[in-house]
Design a protein that fits this description.
The complex is a heterodimer.
Chain A lengths: L1 H25 L4 H23 L5 E4 L6 E4 L1 H24 L6 H20 L3 H19 L6 H32 L4 H10 L11 H16 L8 H4 L5 H11 L2 H8 L1 H4 L5 H21 L4 H21 L3 H20 L1 H10 L7 H6 L11 H23 L7 H23 L5 H30 L3 H11 L3 H35 L1 H12 L4 H22 L4
Antiparallel strand pairs in A: 1-2
Helix pairs in contact in A: 1-2, 1-4, 2-3, 2-4, 3-4, 3-10, 3-15, 4-5, 5-6, 5-10, 6-8, 8-11, 10-15, 11-14, 11-15, 13-14, 14-15, 15-20, 18-19, 18-20, 19-20
Chain B lengths: L1 H11 L6 H10 L3 H20 L7 H18 L5 H14 L1 H7 L6 H29 L10 H4 L1 H14 L6 H16 L1 H26 L13 H21 L5
Amino acid sequence: MEGFIVLVILLPLAAALLTWTSASRLQGASVRISIIGGIATFGVTTLLLGLALAGKPATQVQLGTTWGILLFDPLSALMAFVVSGISLLVHVYSIRYMAEERGYARFFVLLDLMTAVLLLMVSAGDLITLLIAWHLIGVLLYFLLGHDTASQAAHRYAAWTLLTYRFGDLPLLLAAGLLYHAFGTWSLHEIFAHFTAAPDTRTLFDLPLADTVAGLVALAAFARSAQFLLHAWLPYSMSGPTPVSALMHAGIVNAGGFLINRFAPLFVTTNGVLHGIFAVGLVTAVIGSVLMLAQNDVKKALGYSTMGQMGFMIMECGVGAFSLAIYHLIAHGLFKGTLFLGAGGVIREARQDDGVPKDDLYTFVIERRPARRRQPWLVMAAITLVVPVTILILAHWVVANDFFQKQGAVVLLFFGWVTGAQLIFSTYRMRTENIWRLMGMILFSFTIVVIGYTLISHAFDVFLYPDPVFRSGIYSAAAINVFWFDALVILMTLVVVLGWLVTYYAEQNGQRWSDGFGALRRSFYRIVAREFFVMRIYERLSTVLLAVAMRLNVLLRWA
Amino acid sequence: MTSTGFLVAAVFLPLFPFSMLFNRLFGRLGNAWLRMALLLLWPQLGVLALVTPGEKPHAWLVWWAVATSGLYALRTVALKDLRLWTGYMATSAWSLLWPAAAFAPLDGSAYTLALQAAGLSAPFVLLTWISGRLDAEHGAAYAGVCGGLAVTVPRLSGLLTLAILAAVATPLVPGFFIVLATTLNALPAVPGAALLILTVWFLWAWSGVRILRGFIVGPARGAPGRDLGHASVALLGLMLVVLMLAGIGISGELS
């Protein structure tokens, strides 16, 4: 058992070493070693996940005297399986995709090293090992994104990524320092045991240790998962090779959700930190989605889409749905990875199709057919509001009929309702021959998705956190005062309904209404188009620092 | 005796403005081997001077050292000359031996400090060897002159990359564990100093990535140089592995 845990890290490392040393002799064929290593790693992680699912108790291997602990528990087994699976897909995809690129073998060596470090991160059982893996991910990602050494742009944005990641390393390091000084151990297992025994431990400046460390861990997670103000690197990192984008969006950027889950026993003892996490996630989800809608570059839009998704994942942690965040990061990893790896095919198809939308004007002028009539607005609005909430409540009721007692579940339900309503409303706005058929198919898929999501998330909950007391403890740590909770839910409902009414009014009054808000809309669009000036502020800051450094050098006569 | 010891230490584990002496000397030495010897010996003299008084440095000296480290870390960001960059980075790194000595949980023995100084210096020795080679090939080890090395001399640029990564204290080289231990030891005693050390570490990363881009990225500039032979790569790679093993050895200080 212990051998398998170590093997998971050693296999990709050995593959990297053998690929590198045999590259000059075997040329392109050396990447086969990397692929074999990837398959073997995936095989071992599958076995470990099987053992975890079979109920094998958590264990750990200590390789060094003070650090070097590798964990085997449900979280590490699941994440190792996901990381190795996505890595294997990216490896296989890259065989042909990268074949014409300079540094073909180097690319696979870097992929193997990245796989090893990601696996080290998910199975780290002590703070030093975690810090090392956390740090190295940023460094390796820099070289993967900047694989094309001729491209200044790729390296420029890879550097932004590295610096954001380095910024994120620092709070984690501070958190590690505070924990070590409080408990005198690097082992996560021992630290969490100390926390359970003494949750009210104080730290520097008499601050509560749990809240301080949780805040620092959250900050590290924000930097890794591109939360607002630490997101600027993500949409610009598309200059790297497509397989790297797939790996990054599927297996690296979501490490923030993993980190928060790894420190779950710490977060369960916090007071108010999860509310802050929720707020940051919410802002990121909204801003990421708004920025995504304003992009005309597909890859950049995908980047902002990831930002929005990461916001949602962090938000799930904020409401106490930790295991749901893990499910989300896996699901997002798979669909975003698919989108990136399929981007080439989409571009090819786009070249064959003119892409002109077949709206009423098109069908009337080109196809010489009369414009289609829409269904009554009020009927559709009622369906839009009622159907999703009914499906959501029924789906959650199957899992636990007391879910209305959990605020986190209600918040997620609310988001599900808004999303579902949005989906059906979009369907209403579509021009189609048979609206009822389209609606039926969308409702069917929506039902499947919701029920599947609810059941799977429940299964994740039970698998990752089998202790029901602990599970309810996480929800309690995220709970807020009932009055404020109800008030916020009502307020948000009113905002959504008001939005609908505004849309209805705009539909009825057409151009006249939109002209009234034209200037405001254009101003808002200008701000969105400039990505809220975040990148410009950072660029300005770096320019100023460089100027100061240069002036100091001249002033001190280069000595 | 104490003041004299610390004054000598301020020259050899350079505190600003005494640091200007080292950087002036390092910049003037034309022979790369002499510069490499200087990098190895200079901080050892400083460690000797630091431990001679038999007491830990005063708090104000520690702040001065951390400020010096920050000053040179910031200044490296604007540099394109690899020789100057190496000198400034060495200054910034060695200054951190003051807080390392001051905040060490046990009475920092001369042996431990000397080992840490050697661990910090090792990547700079390698960088000096590379800059000497670039000087000979291109006339200057300057980012604007020797761009695009990854295309023309891939093995040398690979080695340069690893050396820069080691210089900016990337895991698992000794620098990583020394900076980590120093920060963690400083944290409960003087949290502000710990934060400043982390800022220095961040500036190193920024500076490292800038100088790296200047040398290895972009289309080849100038005449293609001579790349390293396989035997040299193996030998230098072995040195880096030894450096990493030394780093893991030094990590015992974290307990």
